[in-house]
Design a protein that fits this description.
The protein has 196 residues and is α/β, with parallel strands linked by helices. It is built from five helices and twelve strands.
Length: 196
Amino acid sequence: MKKPTIGVLALQGAVREHLQILEACGARGVALKYPAELRLCEGLILPGGESTTIGKLMVACGFMEELHALSRAGIPIYGTCAGLIVMARRITEGDQPLLGLMDITARRNAFGRQVDSFETDLVLEDIAKKQQPFRAVFIRAPWIDEVGPEVQVMGEFGGKVVMAREDGMLVSAFHPELTGDDRVHRYFLNMVEEAS
């Protein structure tokens, strides 16, 4: 069986950890630095990092239109933490470049600053049940304030939406690549398989 090729946008953020977990799941992970490399991918991960910096670098490096084209072509995209923010159609504060792919409103640094980072167990729809929760790592994490009618809420913490899906797009406020648990990445790989 052919390994799916999953790109990880390598402008800034937790790239290596995503590549490692993708390889452990049997996929081929590729660090992407140039828009032309998007053609290699059957799926794409927008990693955590600093969302304003990632947004500005996407503009400066010519990624914006290419990423829109990728989404229109039905290629699944998964955004973690800062990736969630840049995929959002709206943010509650600030002014930064957004892809606007998902009908969500994101709140940046919603759970607090770096010193407020934490781990918690989550129940995630279609991924982690109450008996086997997902240990989620939140680092200067956003949350989702509002979701559109086509958005499926997949996980909540403290009454706030922290994971959601809309068609071929998936976002999480936490960093699944920083745990030993590959269930979120395997779920995304299933999305890639369904799309192909």
